[in-house]
């Protein structure tokens, strides 16, 4: 079951809140791409050797499924924020587990606050990218659909194209910083980004056709 024009996230959320298990499964599945894009910027590089973005997303979705009754919101914006906070907590726990060992001090809370701010900022940047492709004002359902299409399209790119898009548009890095992260010259990083943008447009067209 996938999200179609007749099955916007808003509709699925309403059905899920009414106890429809299939709608909840479909709703959570529609957020896989979005959570994966955010997780690429959430995971410390030193943690990625032990926990992949897919693992973090899967863990977060399982937790969201288990605790869905605790979700008190009514809109997809609130639901998106709720999922983002679950992702942040799991990312912080991964940092604590793999980097801080058993030490429990102020660093954990600092890490959680840092990750929370980073996730909110990443979401805002990702959200702003949808406006570029939007021709007019969007309803809440259309807005979430745009975010889903964009996230899924990014995830379908090759790793190097996906990484440069995430670094530039999700983490908000300058090309000089991207060059260092990707072990390229600044000019090469810019050229890679330009090619990635073209591929992303193609991927979004394909994804929109599916949606």
TrEMBL record:
Q: Which GO terms describe its molecular function?
A: DNA binding; sigma factor activity
What is the official name of this protein in its record?
Answer: RNA polymerase sigma-E type, Rhodopirellula baltica
The residue ranges of the RNA polymerase sigma factor 70 region 4 type domain are: 150-200
Tell me one GO biological process term: DNA-templated transcription initiation
Asked if the Swiss-Prot or TrEMBL record annotates the protein with the keyword Transcription, the reply is yes
Which key words are in the record? DNA-binding, Sigma factor, Transcription, Transcription regulation
InterPro entries named among the record's database cross-references: RNA_pol_sigma-70_dom, RNA_pol_sigma-70_Plancto, RNA_pol_sigma70_r4_t2, RNA_pol_sigma_r2, RNA_pol_sigma_r3/r4-like, WH-like_DNA-bd_sf
Q: Which SUPFAM superfamilies match?
A: Sigma2 domain of RNA polymerase sigma factors, Sigma3 and sigma4 domains of RNA polymerase sigma factors
Superkingdom of this protein's organism:
Bacteria
